[in-house]
Amino acid sequence: MNKEKILSELQKIVGNAFVSNDPAELYIYSIDPGASKPRSVNFVVMPASTEEVQAIVKLANEYKIPIVPMGGGLTLSGLTLPVKGGIVMDMKRMNKIVEINKLSRYALLEAGVTTGRLQAYLDKNYPELQVSVPDAPPSVTVAGNALINGSGFLTHQHGDHGAMINGLEIVLPNGELCKLGSCGLSDYWFSRGPIPDLIGLYTSSFGIMGIVTKLSIKLYPKPKMRDLVFGLFKKTDIIPNLLYKVTSTDLVEDILLGIQGKPDWMADYIFIISYITGNTQDELDKKEKKLKKMYRKNGARFMKAPPRLRDAFLEKPQFAANAADFRKGGGFEYVGSFFPLEKVPEAIEEGVKISEKYGIVPTLGARIFGATHTVMVFFTYAFNRADPDDIQNARDALKETNEITLKLGGIPWKGELEAQKMILEKIDPQYKNLLKTIKNHLDPNGIMNPGNWEVN
Ligand SMILES: Cc1cc2nc3c(=O)[nH]c(=O)nc-3n(C[C@H](O)[C@H](O)[C@H](O)COP(=O)(O)OP(=O)(O)OC[C@H]3O[C@@H](n4cnc5c(N)ncnc54)[C@H](O)[C@@H]3O)c2cc1C
Questions:
Q1: pLDDT reported for residue 174
Q2: In terms of CB atoms within 10 Å, which of 12, 133, 171, 248 comes out highest?
Q3: What is the 390 CA–ligand 1 centroid distance (Å)?
Q4: 3-state class of 338 per DSSP?
């Protein structure tokens, strides 16, 4: 690799200030806040426009150097760490909110717009509209999260965030520009059909099919008031029926389950948190009353949430990381796995066993997508960043969780390299062949995030 030549070509495209091969500046791009091992990066580049992205991709083809697109870099599963070195393309300078279409309820964004920025912009300028954000730090990007099928407080009603994408502008692996969804033939970015839906090629494929430069994401009406109804129970076997019953009504905006080994008073219980919304207190009171009755009838008890807990859960994003730092030392990673509802009790029981086996305080939860069409169960493993053995301990627990997930008929979400390999080993061979055919055709030089979803 002619590093000096590549550096000077990149400088010509984005300017000297927005490209670097200085080890001190590359360091932060070579590590992940989760349990992944560091990986080396040759260049970081920060384009400001679609044209710059295209020029960089064309250059990468010329030199056959890998490119890894990065938003906030916060998946925790090493997805923006280059497997085969090369260029990390940090999208954060592409941070324009291009359009808010109030009537058709969508936001057209450049790929570097963060969830925090979009949410603040809507709160200020369109207080009647909201976007579903993940419970991740507000520095994550709307694109990065939607592209990994992330989830947030509106996923029970509207599906995961990948399903909220209306359209994409993409720089293909050969540098050409392509628009998918209604934007491919209309000035309006309002829909992904009714035309062959190729947007799915870009979700959960971790940047191997091209670089998204713009996306349109759905917005939703914002109710005036929001509250939660907290409940608890002890046995996992009531979960399917309880969730089925609650989601058979239109009472809730979002539902979470939580299992936490600390503080001691929480250790013996599974918590159910139903979010309710309305325009008046009377509306909320009626919903609360109905939910309390439904909890009771289906094996759970109502509990008034302690004010601090209630406030934390009502934040958007709620402060999810506080429970994860039981180990001290700041590290945690989680496997979020998609399950059918009937497998959730077993998944939770197995998750608690794995935590106990590895000496980690059990910290698990679940979130519903659609009317129980999918339940995402998350298994969180804390570790001390300063202790390599403890990090390895978390990695081992994550691996075992992925194995159990697949055995139970679930699918690991935003899987790190090892999880991707396990999925590819189990998947229908023709699924794999189709993936390989598409990938090889789109990216004959193999420059787009190589190593991820690798099918030989
Ligand atoms: C405390 C905490 C809580 C969390 N809670 C949640 C939660 O409730 N819900 C949830 O969904 N997630 C959650 N997460 C996980 C994660 O932070 C988010 O999903 C996050 O939104 C990922 O976005 P990002 O911008 O960091 O993506 P990145 O990590 O930058 O990228 C994700 C993937 O998309 C690819 N990619 C990024 N940008 C582009 C692009 N422009 N074109 C093509 N490919 C691209 C990357 O190569 C990578 O493979 C949490 C994380 C933390 C640390």
A1: 97
A2: 171
A3: 24
A4: strand
H or E segment and range at residue 394? helix 388-407
Phi–psi pair at 81, nearest 5 degrees: -90, 120
Segment 378-396, tens digit of pLDDT: 999 999 999 999 999 999 9
Identify the helix (H) or strand (E) that includes residue 246: helix 239-247
State in Å: Cα 72 to ligand 1 middle.
7
Write the CA distances from 380 to 34, 309, 310, 345, 360, integer angstroms.
11, 19, 21, 17, 9
Q: Beta strand pairing status for 220-221 and 177-181?
A: unpaired
Q: What contacts 339, CB < 8 A, 6 or more positions away?
A: 347, 374, 375, 376, 377, 405, 408, 409, 410
Whether the CB-CB separation of 228 and 287 falls below 8 Å is answered with: no
Ligand 1: residues with CB < 6 A are 68-76, 79-80, 91, 111, 134-137, 140-141, 143-145, 147-148, 150-152, 206-207, 211-212, 320-321, 449
- d(CA 129, CA 367) in angstroms, rounded, equals 23
CA-to-CA dists, residue 1 to 85, 195, 410, 444, angstroms: 11, 42, 42, 19
Q: How far is the CA of 73 from the centre of ligand 1 (A)?
A: 6
User: SS in 3 state form for 71-134?
Assistant: CCCCCCCCCCCCCCCCEEEEHHHCCCEEEEECCCCEEEEECCCEHHHHHHHHHHHCCCEECCCC
Q: Relative to the CA of 449, which ligand 1 atom is closest?
A: 47
Q: pLDDT tens, 167-209?
A: 999 999 999 999 999 999 999 999 999 999 999 999 999 999 9
Tokens of 327: 């180990």
Q: Give the chain's domains with CATH numbers.
A: 3-92 (3.30.43.10), 94-221 (3.30.465.10), 225-417 (3.40.462.10)
Count of all residues that appear for the chain in the document: 456
Report the atom number in ligand 1 closest to the C-alpha of 212: 42
Model-level pTM greater than 0.90?
yes
- Structure token digits, residue 98: 């291009």
- 53-82: burial string, b at 16+ Cβ within 10 Å, e else: bbbbbebbbebebbbbbbbbbbbbbbbbbb
Instruction: Take residue 112 and report the two structure tokens written for it.
Output: 């570097």
DSSP, collapsed to helix, strand or coil, labels residue 314 as: helix
Backbone φ, ψ for residue 101 (5° rounding) = -95, 105
